[in-house]
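#random but structural
TW: two for the price of one
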Amino acid sequence: MFENRTTYRSQHQKKGLVSFEITVKETNLNIQAQTDLSDNAIQAALIYRNFIENYIHKFPAFATALSPLPQPFLAPAIVIDMIEAGKRANVGPMAAVAGAMAQYVGEDLLALSNEVVVENGGDIFIKSDSETIFSIYAGNSPLSMTTGILVEKQKDPFGMCTSSGTLGHSKSFGRADAASVIADSCALADASATALCNMVQKSSDIEKAIHAGKQIQGIQGIVIIKEKHIGLWGDLKLVRLSPESTTLITPDKR
């Protein structure tokens, strides 16, 4: 999780939006919208957590699988999306849980606010009327927080998720300092970031991981950092950091 959550959340404020934070059980979301929608966000988070928890109660393998599961005949939409994201990225469905929660809460709030940013453990669902510059925190890498990744304004919401094999406490099979994925689905971005991070043991694995990521339908961009090496692909570009417009991404290790 975050070694510097307060710093992160103070630096990723979008101009003109109100920032607020909610906590529902283990889910802690930092949200930006045109007004304070805390009550609506709490209600949405409760609904989607309950969907996931109830499904796990009926099918415990959903919580522990490290490889894709078959699509169920009947399940809540958030569960189906997590399973589909895991299938595309070739990981278990829980690799998409943080991104899926951010996405589903964010989509509900878009009925009340034209712009929404929902951050969940370093995974972000975003609908913005302006370009966004992300600075990726990559631990001890000399590239950490030194270069911005600019994503142009997009008509539709998208997800930006980051996984790390060298930060945090969650299970990881890789050693990337940061593997970030931009996708049209936040659940898919989360699962794919986990998968690509797992592929990187050393800097020479970056090219292989990016090639694999390019094959996942729905991915728009990839950034992988390992020590002093960085690999990029897709609809993004490197820029000089501007503190006033930076969204700092601190990866949750998976």
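TW: number two ↓
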Amino acid sequence: MRRFFIEQAEIAKDKPMIEGPDAHHITSVFRLKPGDEILLVDGTGFEYRATLIRISKNQVEIAVTEKYAVRTESPIKITVGQGYLKDKKMDMLVRHLTETGITRWIPMISEYSIPQIDIKKNSARVERWITIAREAVKQCGRTLVPVITAPASFAEIVKNFGNTDLKIIFYENEAKPLGQTLLPGAPQPSEILLLFGPEGGFSTKEVELAIANGFVAGSLGPRILRAETASIAACALVQHIFGDMA
């Protein structure tokens, strides 16, 4: 059954409507008809079974027949601070990290970030990342849309997450594997912050600042991974150790 996204405020109306790209997909791509059933995701943890009532070119009226919680979310909350990458690698990371189950994604300005941040275009980029995250949620069966924030500096992120249970900065010059870095017998974390550098990695100064603020340095092994590969591999590894990918 096809899954579509709907705002929580819209689903609460007497006659909920689907508009925009999803309405186009219903009418023109999937060619669904009145009486057909679909699944709806509101981005807050619930899924709905609904019946199509009335269809026009840009709007689809629905009737909700069932509401239920879906258990596809990880038991841990993972925030990712991602150093800016070139080209469209950031778009790809939003999609794939949403699939791994992260709950927050922060584009991060660090010392070796190469792309220059265009303030005028930045809000449009954030909106695009939110759209990409929503599409990934529909595809992978999740019910919660990760929070996509405005860009923040490395120092801001390092200093503003003091209450997080576990904070890891992934650093290519760290010798110990991640499993040896984590303290044996430590309590199960509920919130984790992961920091990944841009193509040039982190500077020694940044790593020292992170460790001084309660981070542990993590390694992904002896092979040098591309920046985008490292982020995906590390999130999957952390979900395996602490979440629901075991």
